[in-house]
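Technical note accompanying the year-one report. For the benefit of new consortium partners, we illustrate the data format agreed upon in the data management plan: each record pairs a sequence with a structure-token string. No post-processing was applied to the example shown here.
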Amino acid sequence: MKKNVFFYFLPILFLISCIKHEIIPAPSKSVDLACSFKGSIGGTDIKWLQNVDDYNCIPSQDKLLTTTSGQQSSSTFISKIASSSVKGEISVALGRVFWTQFDKPTHEIFTKFFDTYKTDHPLYSTGGKFGFEVRYKDNLGTEWVSDSASIFPQNVTISNLSYDSDINLDYCKFTATFNCHLFHYNNDTKKKDSLEVENAIFKGWFTR
């Protein structure tokens, strides 16, 4: 009887030993990202919220890469709030950071660049190459741009700076509060039209 029991359990033990243990990968880190814009542009109150009417933040960079010895690569950081289904969008640009080697700045250079604005206010700059620029596209598709040489008062404060990373990207989360005038050159009348931006608050992120 004992011999029969032994032969009964032997196949079961063999099957158990052959079962492969499932390896559960460690959960990947996720980053909490939120974007929004509110302010008055041309006398119209605007409020865009993330995931409402398909609005979201789209970060990008205007890079100038070089492999020439003795020269530095550079980049301007851009953050745009736009919708895939609704017209009207706004973007802010901030630059310019410089580095040598590699195709992007190190994490240390990236964070130190933005840390400067914890105490300093950026100046308005064409293309954001040496400071801050605003671009707004209205619901007719007309683009309006800030001007570093504007005769109207303009200011900007960068606040709520924080850094985070996931497995793919490094992020700089921020809030830009600004007032300025935006301009559009009308080719028909040869007149430079303007829109006043008041109490604008742009919340978004840049990526390294």
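Partners are asked to follow this layout when depositing records. The chain is about 10% helix and 50% strand.
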